[in-house]
Amino acid sequence: MILKTDKSSHFLVFVPHRDTRRVLRNYSTGLLKAGLAGAYAFPWVAPLAALSHPLDAEELKNIARALRKAACGGKFIAEGADTSAISTAQEKIILFGPRLDFTIPPDILAGLGCDFFSPPIIGACLLSAAESRNNLPCPPKLSFTAAAVANMSWQPVNFSGEGAQAGAYGYKWKIGKLCWLPSVKSFGKL
User: Fold this and answer.
1) Which segments of the chain are extended strands (E)?
2) What's this model's pTM, rounded to 2 decimal places?
């Protein structure tokens, strides 16, 4: 089997703590059982912005501080579901998942020349244009304080060759080093 990869897209992503991602993994399992093939096609992170290049450690730290400040009472809350159309290097994808309830400060990426995706959605499933979100089960309500930001590269992969299903398609991603948001207690000291 031959893997043909297309050009990578780079994103700034918001990464909930692994305990929260475990709950999201169980939700994605339910979506897969409901017949949605895109349930494991995107990691359980929220893409915040498309990047032309990965951000350095200092830029990630500044973004982490700004996001901690934007948190409602120090907590991040994800309630209800939503979709977000995200443009990649190859296509426009529709991401479905829990909607994060915080506003991204507009000056957070000043000078970096990138736009934020709004509203921020934690990826639980990729939907095709033909799939409707109307009949999908509502995600669980999430509330958490621990989270990080990171760079992520993401790209579609085409499978071809003997034994490969015609038009088989998948995705691969790599999340860079996590830059944890300051703790709620220590944030007031910064």
Assistant:
1) 2-5, 9-16, 46-51, 76-87, 92-100, 125-127, 142-144, 147-160, 169-175, 179-180
2) 0.85
- Which of 93, 118, 100 has its CA nearest to residue 38? 93
Averaged over successive runs of 10 residues, the pLDDT of the chain (190 residues) comes to 62 93 92 86 90 91 89 86 78 86 76 75 84 80 94 79 53 93 72
| Contact present, 147 and 76 (Cβ < 8 Å) | yes
The residues with which 180 forms a beta bridge, in sequence order, are: 148
Scored b (16 or more CB within 10 A) or e, 158-187 reads ebeeeeeeeeeeebebebbeebbbbeeeee
Residue 45: name the closest of 63, 28, 62, 29 by CA: 28
Class of 2-187 per CATH? Answer: alpha beta
Q: Which residues are registered as beta bridge partners of 11?
A: 50, 152
Contact 167, 188 (CB under 8 A): no
Say if CB 111 and CB 27 are below 8 A apart. Answer: no
The answer to whether the CB of 150 falls within 8 A of the CB of 179 is yes
d(CA 122, CA 39): 12
Residue 116 DSSP class:
B
